[in-house]
Amino acid sequence: MKFLVDAQLPRRLAIAMSSLGYDTLHTLDLPNKNETKDAEINQISIADERIVITKDADFVDSFLLIGKPYKLLLISTGNISNIELTNLILPKMKTIAEAFLSAKFVELNRTHLIIHQ
Description:
6-stranded mixed β-sheet
């Protein structure tokens, strides 16, 4: 399973996910780094079948209106430290990955994993 972590999330999350065996890029790994436009992130997501991980509601709008990106993990925790965020996501990665076997849009808040159909 492949992921692309958006700019407002920490690179350490992508590194930690990679260490768990997930093929994970951060926008800092792309040619335009954190200046990569959403449309380009969507194109990469579709071309490489990468799940975009983001806090950006613009990706939700894009996903619901035009079906891009390929799949979407929305982080809806509000303000949270990078360490708390990483500690929230990493233990749930197996469950998150399993959710994406049947779902295209999953949301993670501080207490729940929500599978949108």
